[in-house]
Design a protein that fits this description.
This protein is an alpha/beta fold. The protein has a domain of about 190 residues. It has 8 helices and 8 strands; from the N terminus they run βαααββαβαβαβαββα. Strands 1-2-8-7-3-6-4-5 form an 8-stranded mixed beta sheet, sandwiched between helices. Helix 2 runs antiparallel to helix 3 and helix 3 packs across helix 4. The longest helix has 21 residues. The protein is globular, with a radius of gyration of 17 Å. About 45% of the residues are buried.
């Protein structure tokens, strides 16, 4: 895919245009956002079941969700997109994992700049009603999150297959989604995959606490527009040796951007 003028993210940097939020967005952002988002998921699920949900449809539906977030009062800031443009091969994108938002938003940001894309996901995402059809249509690498050794094997084997087939892979190497970034919980599985397959690593930092965890359904909590949404992409690099320094490089990239964007509430979600 090639970014064009119709895409939000067609330049190196994107910032939501300044405009007054509607009364509904200001007062009931979640009530405005979720019905639209559910409609997009239902339509995408139908297309996936019909075998008509390709990477173009995925990118467009992802962009629709981004538009719904902005219509609900959220402000999105993306930087470093030019770092994806020089890539002429698949890559491993390694970032922190904060909320459901990045799973929905990243395809529209990344796909226009790569041949194809998929995620490493926990199995539960492939079992959600309706959304499972969308996720499975994207050929994800599925892990159980119960046995680290089995997950490493799955990522090494399935990940290598996806990369060889032209897919770039997004990996969130944390045990849980968490608003506070903890390097001790950020493993090196993405670095190991890139080292074994000889593909570049692209570090990704994000701040997505505007889509907060829910009390009963953790994936669908209140939308809080007062919290700016940030994504940053670093320069691609290759992994040498065991990758210890490269792993620390990704951690530093994330920490520096989170510090620049401001601290987040100290709360962890599973």
């Amino acid at each position: 895919m090639i970014p064009d003028a119709s895409w939000r993210f067609n330049t190196d940097r994107y910032d939501t245009p300044e405009r007054p939020a509607s009364w509904l967005a200001h007062t009931f952002p979640s009530a405005l956002f979720y019905p639209k988002m559910v409609g997009i998921v239902l339509r995408s699920s139908l297309l996936a079941r019909l075998g008509r949900y390709d990477k173009f449809a995925w990118a467009r539906s992802s962009e629709e969700v981004v538009g719904c977030l902005e219509s609900s009062g959220c402000r999105i800031h993306v930087e470093g997109l030019a770092n994806l443009n020089p890539l002429d091969q698949p890559c491993v994108l390694i970032g922190n994992h904060m909320s459901t938002l990045e799973t929905f938003a990243l395809p529209s940001i990344i796909l226009p700049r790569c041949e194809n894309l998929t995620f490493v996901v926990k199995r539960s995402l492939t079992e959600y009603p309706f959304f499972k059809h969308v996720m499975l249509s994207r050929n994800p690498v599925v892990v159980e999150r119960s046995n680290p050794r089995d997950d490493l094997k799955a990522v090494m084997e399935q990940g290598a297959e996806r990369l060889a087939a032209g897919y770039s892979i997004v990996i969130f190497p944390q045990h849980t989604r968490t608003i506070v970034f903890d390097p001790e919980q950020f493993n090196s599985i993405g670095i190991k995959l890139a080292a074994r397959t000889g593909v570049p690593v692209v570090p990704v930092a994000l701040q997505t606490s505007a889509w907060s965890p829910g009390r009963h359904l953790k994936d669908y909590g209140p939308i809080i527009p007062s919290r700016p949404i940030h994504f940053a992409f670093g320069a691609p690099f290759m992994v040498a040796g065991k990758g210890s320094e490269e792993h620390q490089r990704v951690i530093r990239f994330i920490q520096e951007h989170l510090q620049r964007w401001g601290s987040a509430p100290h709360r962890s979600v599973g």
